[in-house]
Amino acid sequence: MTAFDFLQTTRASYDAIADAYATRFRGELAAKPLDRAVLVAFAALVRDRSGGPVADVGCGTGRVTGYLHGLGVDVFGIDLSPGMLAAARRDHPGLRFEEGSMLGLDLPDGGLGGLLAWYSTIHVPDDQLPRVFAEFFRVLAPGGHLLLGFQAGDGVLRRTEAFGHDIDLDFRRRRPEWMAELLITAGLTMNARVVREIDEEGDFPETSGQAFLLARKPIVSGGREDGDTD
To answer: Averaged over 70-86, what is the pLDDT?
Structure first.
């Protein structure tokens, strides 16, 4: 076993369930107005920048990529799973989707005006998160915004079956304050931390609260970040 075996198991698991996943979660955002509000705020921030496009890293079936596009964001998707990408291209034929890993993004330094990781870091082992966040910092343009979405809490939920298929996935719940510290260590500054309580009702019941972190890559001029007045 190696530190990167989770990449292979994650890819294979989502390849196996891609079509069923696309059908099951196609309408999830419509049922979660608070989550949409967070995405609307992110869209407003990145839309007002000219620092490059926005990457939806770990885009899955492209449902959030498509939502941001509908809000006027210049966005494209990246995912590890060819099966999920096939569903994304089918459901959103006018958008660009690429295969790739967040541990080593095939993107130039400072090329993105924004980066979304919407429940896509949840399978990454704790010891690999600093590498992931360093990549996010690298590809963001100065002033670019990052939005993370993930399950709040502690512990790991292991799933070996979904939609009638064998899978091998660990779903990691994490404390928002710990994730924020990792982002700060990577060089980002925090703009907002939102924690939503568990929604146990409706068509998409949850077993944990949800966390959203908005961060920004500083703009440095003359050794000082723009906006410094001290």
So the answer is: 97
Listed in sequence order, the residues at least 6 apart from 200 whose beta carbon sits closer than 8 Å to its beta carbon are 206
Cβ neighbours around 124 below 10 Å, total: 21
Tell me the backbone φ, ψ of residue 61, rounded to 5 degrees: -85, 5
Which one has a higher pLDDT value, 204 or 85?
Answer: 85
How many whole angstroms separate alpha carbon 107 and alpha carbon 119? 21
Largest distance between two CA atoms of the chain: 59
pLDDT (mean) for 70-95: 97
Per-residue confidence at 2, pLDDT binned at 50, 70, 90?
Answer: low
Residue 66 exposed, middle or buried by CB count within 10 Å (0-12, 13-18, 19+): buried
Three-class SS of residue 187?
coil
d(CA 168, CA 14): 9
Tokens of 23: 């059908």
Looking at per-residue confidence, does 228 or 110 come out higher?
110
- Angstrom CA distances, 160 to 33, 101, 165, 203, 207, stand at 30, 22, 8, 22, 17
